Amino acid sequence: MKADREEYAFLKSLIAISMIGLCIWAALWQYERGVERHARNSLIERQAAFSVAATLSSLTSDLNAHEWRMVTTRGSFDPEQQILIKNRYFEGAYGFEVLTLFEDVESRKFWVDRGWVVAGATARTPPVITRVPGGVVEITGRLRLDSSLPRGAFFALPSGGEGELISKLNAQSLAQTENFYLDLAFGSLPQLTPKVPAQLPELSDGPHMAYALQWIFFAGLVLYGRILIRRPR
Fold it and tell me: How many CB atoms are closer than 10 A to CB 81?
């Protein structure tokens, strides 16, 4: 009987240690996520604070170090290559984010986010989108990397007027775009300024640190419970 009790106690201790280990692992995971998110937010704040826009050609050698900065470039839009990102909201209204293909004077092709537009009156009604000007224009926008493209399905509006669903990767590979895009702020012509420009992401550190402390508290509860169970009755 004594051997059985010892084996049972050992099993309970093993379970408790495993639970504590899992809680500590979860706490560390949440802590690391919190640190990464805080560093990302600090980077966005620091880069977005630059008041003078740099030229895009001067940054392409090190894009990662300059993401979220305002940059200026010259080139022309391709009005036939336009993508709408579904499920975008502004002040409670449903709409789309408009991405139009742009080719700069150095022959680089990339998407330009021209801001948000409200959806049509019905699902079959396309939204009203300001047509891009022809010819060479100068644009200024926030540099974004391919890894930070907005997530969501794409709704393409070809020249024929009938839309089709395509994935982001297919849209980019067919157009052979660069691995960055711009959030348009304004341009050399008035119609280039979006009525609702793309917004910076929410710069909140989130609940990760609180969750980390919560998991440490759970580990403490398991340890305390195991100690109570081991007390002689």
Answer: 19
Cβ–Cβ under 8 Å, residues 196 and 116: yes
Cα 214 to chain centroid, rounded? 27
Compute φ and ψ for 85, nearest 5 degrees.
-95, 125
The number of CA neighbours under 13 Å toward the Cβ of 88 is: 26
pLDDT for the residue 140: 93
- Which H/E stretch holds residue 219? helix 208-230
| Both structure tokens of 167 | 């994935």
**Contacts (Cβ under 8 Å, ≥6 apart) of 9:** 230
CA distance 187 to 197: 12
pTM: 0.67
With beta carbons less than 8 A apart as the criterion, state whether 168 and 149 touch.
yes
